[in-house]
Amino acid sequence: MALEEYKRKRKFEHTPEPPAKVAxxxxxxxxxxxxxxxxxxxxxRLEMEGVLKSWAVPxxxxxxxxxxxxxxxxxxxxxxxxxxxxIIPENNYGAGTVMVWDVGTWQPLSxxxxxxxxxxxxxxxxxxxxxxxxxxxxxxxxxxxxxxALVKMKGRRPGSKGNEWLLxxxxxxxxxxxxxxxxxxxxxxxxxxxxxxxxxxxxxxWRSRPxxxxxxxxxxxxxxxxxxxxxxxxxxxxxxKKKPKK
Length: 246
Ligand code: MN
Description:
The chain is an alpha+beta fold. The chain has one domain (4-235). The chain has 5 helices and 9 strands, in the order H-E-E-E-E-E-E-H-E-E-E-H-H-H. Strand 1 (29-36) and strand 2 form a beta hairpin. The longest helix has 16 residues, at 220-235. The radius of gyration is 19 Å and the shape is globular. The site of manganese (II) ion has 6 residues, from strand 2.
């Protein structure tokens, strides 16, 4: 069953992460979360078939077609994970800080290019490409744009789980030579750096905060935290917090 593994790995009374629920509506969003867990990595998630198909990308996605980024497929996540930002407390699966690094929409590309260019494909083509291990898609995000491919690695390395893919940027107008992901340490939701999310008292309070009954706002705990942060920043003198040096 979908999300079974997601559920099995988590104790929802101890983590602020959303519960396992398969969405009934089909959507085409994507999210990239920067996740400072045991090892810093980026989680790349595509909304498909009522869940977020997920890959952990140690070096993060790149806009440089020369970079072939290792992407380990992990368990499907519920679509409500889309705007999860905050702290997964210690002793929980994936403990550490999570930033919503990029969001947007995606569309499948037809596996067969027309006159050397990729053109939009169908749902059925997307499902077939995923099953085959060669998924081509176009992203329209705030940071990531253009055509990409996720290609499953055939040769299994010793000790590999057979879940290794490569995330590759295709050549197009959005390609950026020498793309350096470390230059973009800012949440698209809250504008905070990973260090700011990690150190924010507001984030700590989210843990036990019930999120129900807040009307239209989807992630109420997040909206609350951002509102609190805005208020705090307004109240503060204009001496902006200095970013820690790299
Ligand atoms: Mn992760």
